[in-house]
Design a protein that fits this description.
alpha+beta; 5-stranded antiparallel sheet; 8 strands
């Protein structure tokens, strides 16, 4: 499935392929994953729930969501993160809504 990886340490957003929830954990680097709704289309932001405790490098913020430290993955999913599917946002659309801090 198509997803977008946010890498704040180099201020980039790049397409990635995800086949399961474990792939998200591998990309982010941790299994303590928090999920935030990005928009009504079902796109969700997945990130390390303990990102600020770990002192991950780089920070970003999508719209008015809480700022995140470390890597983030945006893709389609159900409210609880289940039922993963392709991201609906384009790379450019997400970039326009993301601030690197």
């Amino acid at each position: 499935m198509k997803a977008l990886l946010i890498r704040p340490e180099i201020q980039s957003i790049e397409p990635v392929d995800i086949s399961c929830f474990e792939d998200i954990a591998k990309l982010i680097g941790y299994e303590t994953i928090a999920i935030e709704e990005v928009d009504a289309s079902g796109d969700r932001l997945f990130f390390d729930e303990e990102c600020f405790l770990r002192g991950s490098e780089g920070r970003f913020q999508v719209d008015s969501l809480i700022p995140v430290s470390g890597l983030g993955v945006v893709m389609g999913a159900g409210e609880d993160g289940s039922g993963l599917r392709d991201v609906t946002l384009s790379q450019d659309e997400l970039a326009a809504r993301t601030k690197f801090l």
